[in-house]
Every structure is written in C-alpha cells, then in structure tokens.
Amino acid sequence: MAIIKMKKMYFLGLKKDLDRILDALQRLGAVEIADIEEEEEGSARVTTELSELESKLTRLKFAIEFLKPYGKEPNPLFYGRPKFSLKKLREILSREGKIFEIVDTIYGFEQRFSRLKAEETRILNQIELIKPWGGLDIPVESLGTNGRVELKAIAVPKKNFKPFMDKVKEKDLPLEVIPVGESREESLALAVYHNSAKSDVQELYKEFSANTEEFNGFTGTPADIVLKLQERLEAIEAERQKIKEEITQLADRLLDLKAFYDYLLLEKQRKENLLKMAETEKIFVMKAWVPENSVESVKEAISSVTDAVHMVFEDPAEDDDIPVALSNPRLVQPFEIVTELYSLPNPREIDPNLYMAPFFFVFFGMMVSDAAYGLVLSLLSALAIWKLKLSGMGKKLVELLFLGGISTFIWGMIFGSWLGDLIKIKPLWLNPLENPMAVLYLSFALGVVQIYTGIILSAYKNIRNGKVADALMDQGLWLLFLTGLIMMALLGMTGTAKYMALAGAAGLVLTQGRSQKSIIKKFTSGLLSLYNVTSYLSDVLSYSRLLALGLATGVIATVINTMAKMLGVNVVGYIAMIIVMIGGHLFNIAVNALGAYVHSSRLQYIEFFGKFYEGGGRPFEPLRMKTEYLDLEDL
Asked: Long-range contacts of range 325-329, CB-CB < 8 Å, 24 or more positions apart?
C-alpha cells in the first residue's frame, strides 16, 4: 500500500464521439489527460470558446457572490451541498438568455449602489467641511462684494488666530473679524471690511496663512445646508433599502445561477482538456494517465459509449512526468496531510506515510500527554467528523486530531495526568514532573529508532534501484558505526562495541570519498565524513522536545488549577472558578495540540525525511465532475 502505479494510455477515436467519451471519463474520475506536443488544428476555435466560457463564468460568479448575502441557504459545512437534478438543469440551460438577464439586472444593482456610495461619500465630505461653520448665521450667497463692503468666510490656523486678531487691532483697519467656530486645525471667522482696505487685508491673510472659504453651489446658512445634506443622506439610505428589497426578490434564483455556473465550469474543464489533444477533421488522439487498478474501469466506460476506438496502455518511460496518487490503509490516510503539506513523494521513490504515521501518532500524544485532554480532543474531533461535511485536507486534519487525541489519552494514563493534577490517578509508569530524566531518555530512544528507520529506508531505496554496494557503504557502515558508539556510550559494552565502531569508521573513511579522483581526496573526504556523526547527535537531541512540550502541558494545567482554586471562596467565586477552569483548560488543549502538531511535523520533515525522502511529486488530477457550489445528479 503506497504510491499507485500509473499506466500511460494512448487513445484514438472518432471526433464525433469525443464529447460523449469525455463525459464518460468525467463521470469515472480516473483519467488525467496529458499534453500531446503536436500542432493541433482547431485549437484557435477551442481557445475562443474557452474565452467565452471564462467571460460567462466571471459574470455568473459576480452575480452569485452579490446575491449570497440576500439568500437563505443551509450552511454546506453542516448540511452538505445542495443536490440538483438533471431535469431541473436542462430546464435552466434552455433559459440561458433569461439567466443572463438576471445577471445584467444584478450588475445594474451594483452600479446603482456604486453611484449612491459615491454620492454619499461626497455629501459626508461636504458636511465635514461645512458643519464647523454652523455659527455663521448669514446665507452663504451673501458672501463676497456687497457694494463697498466685502464679506469673507476665512479659516486661520489655530496657532495663528490670536496673533492675527492682535494684528487686526494694531493696524486699525476698517476690518471687523467675527469668530464663528472651529474645525480640528483652524479657527473660523467672518471678515467684514471696506473695499479701500482690500490690499492690506490680503497682506494680513498671507502673513497669517488665512484662507477664504467658498461655498459654491450652496444657498442658505451653513446650518441649513447641513440639514439639507443630511436629508439627502436619509433619502440615499431609503433608496438603498429599496434596492435591497428588489434584490431580495431575486434571491430565490440563486440556486439556478449556481447550477448554471457549475455546468459551465464542467464545460470549461472539458474544453481545457480538448486543448491537450491532437485532432484532424474526423479523428482525435489523446494521451492520458490512468491508475493501474482503474484500467479495466476505463475500458468499460469507453466501451459503453462506442466501439470505434483504439486504446493502448503502457508503462511510463524514464523521463515521463508521472502524476502521484496514494493508496494507504484507512488508519494511515489522515497522516497523509503531513506529507502533502511538505511535498508529495516522487513517483519513483518510497511513500513515507506508512512508516511516518506510527511515529507521528506516538510523538503527538507524548507532547500533550494528558488523558482528559485526549478525551476532549477526540470527542470534539469525532463531533466535527459526524456533524460537518468535510472533505479533502480538512477531513484528514480532523481525523488526524482524533487519532492524536487517542494517543494523548494513552500517554496521559501512562504519565498519570488528568487535567494536570486535578484528578489524582496513579500513573501506569511514572510522573514526568517527578522523574523527567526517564522521559528524556525515552525521547532519545524513540529518536534513535526513527533515525535508524530513515537510514534503513534509504538503504532499501538503493537496493531497489540496484545499488546494493551503495546501500552497504552509505547506510550499512553508518548503522554499524552509530550502533557501536551507542553501545559503548550507553550500555558500557567496550569489547564488541569498540570493534563495531572502529570497523564502521574505517569503512566510512575508505568508502565515502570514492567519487573523488585522487587517492588523497578520497581519503580526506572519507575522513571528513566522520564529522557527520555530530549531525546525528543533533538529530537525536532534537527529540528532547517530546519531554519539553509534555512538561509544558502539565505545568500549565497545574497553574490553571491553582489559579482557579484560589477563586473558590464563595458562590460567586465557585462560578468564576468553573469558568476559569473550563476556559483555561480549553485554551491549554488548543495551544498544546497546535504545538504538538507543529513539532511532530518538524521531527518528520527534518530528522526523518532528511534521511531518505526526496519529494517533488505532482498530484494526480483526473478529469472529474468537479463543481464549486452544487452536486449535480446524473449529469
């Protein structure tokens, strides 16, 4: 159970059967159509059709997203996506013109909203400018020249206003300045002066950075103007509500728009695959990838459409870009998300999921290591799996948390941790807070086991590729050397262990420089390779995080319990204690579950995958009924 073996399919058929064949393959969902690197006739036509489909999809997408807030549809996360029958779909397809009339109407609504928004913004800016002039009790149309008298609304920076007023008094000009209000940064006033003093007044304005305010297009006092503008704002809001009522009447057509969108989306997928084929006036040629276990299903699906076809299935060539599809036991599938977030395996290497899953399961539980937390995590995950309509990576993540909760429960019983120290139950083994060194040694031991597993898998890769000598020299000698060192350091076995370590070291010195040309370089490279033992030591030390995160969970839980108990002095205190305890422990579960996921993944990516895993595979993307909004029945 690992990477599914792929077959390369070449397919020759009549062009008149192409649409029905694509429909059958789309229903089956087991064929990825590949590019044929030939000049394709008719590609311009298909490209034009694709462009038209893209335009229609863009318009429909806008209309759907616009109508969504006005429709009342069950949440697909809880109730799944709506089902749509073939009969209903055909009815909608026959009314394409009316569907796009609805889309045009929705675009019209959007334009009306935009105009109202622009006007509203302009009015709000005008109110912000005019409102501070509320103290000006003369109509703004009276400002300007009135015979020999000038009336001007002026704005002076606040810091300059007092010096400005002092200067006016000092100059003894035929000028009267009447303060009428303030804005955020300016003092506002009405300036009344005789025409004969106009040049002197202008000089004062320049000296104190005073500006005159024009009220072009307005009549009445500033207070009256603001009142009229606010009335217009109310009218705009009323008009907006009226438009929303009109939109609500269209909301029941949302399902039709979604169905039509999904139908066009499927058509677009078919057209995109047409561009990958070669064709003449009457025939077409297709190249595709098919999982080996789906070959017979593909033959049956095509045979049900037409017999006028020729199919050839063959093994991939060395230089083929083979897509990757995984097939793992049900319990291993949730752990695939860890690998997928890193990189899919190369189609010619080992799928690491089966070997990585047990380690991830153990490490996650050790890092959280509270039995009650494990129960809560598994129960919440089970509830999400049961109630939510999850799929893809979301489903795998929740299932991973469910399994992580089980591991956490097991380790919590081993360490005797139940909500920290709240529930006193004797541990099956020991309490990490009392004997952390034992857990640290266990962490290192688990690290050594995983690192050895990675080295052995790397040796297996070499053997499978016919490089038996490389497996012996590059992995076998390291296993011998490291085992000897471990036996000498930890088990006190100096006899056999010493010879194992010496034999491994000598072998590494003699073989690790074999790619070099000169004898000196061969020896030097081999000798320097022994320095890599520090890298293995660093990898082992990295597993101390298993102890560190486990201790952090227990300590934080204990602190939460202590804080909560301090509140339990009366009825109100007991209520607060319960709230603090529930909230604190839920927070601790969330934070440490996240930490356990991140650090367990990190151990896989760096310490484990680094020993044998290349990655770089691309996912298998079959032609299928892939819709965005609805499940189309019997399409």
From this structure: 325/3, 325/4, 325/6, 325/291, 325/619, 325/620, 326/2, 326/3, 326/4, 326/351, 326/353, 327/1, 327/2, 327/3, 327/4, 328/1, 328/2, 328/353, 328/354, 329/1, 329/354
Alpha carbons 406 and 335: distance in angstroms, whole number: 14
Give the DSSP H or E segment for 379: helix 371-387
461: Cβ contacts below 8 Å, ≥ 6 apart? 349, 350, 612
Residue with tokens 């979604």: 258
Q: What's the rounded Cα separation, in Å, for the pair 190 and 187?
A: 11
Distance CA 431, CA 413 (A): 10
The pLDDT tens digits for 513-522 are 888 888 888 8
pLDDT value at position 40? Answer: 47
pLDDT tens string 77-104: 676 777 777 667 777 778 888 899 999 9
Cβ neighbours around 213 below 10 Å, total = 18
CA–CA dist 236, 229 (Å, integer): 10
The Cα–Cα gap between 257 and 60 comes to 7
- pLDDT greater than 70 at residue 632: no
* Predicted confidence (pLDDT) per residue in 378-419, tens digit: 999 999 999 888 888 999 999 999 999 999 999 999 999 999
C-alpha 323, offset from chain centre:
23
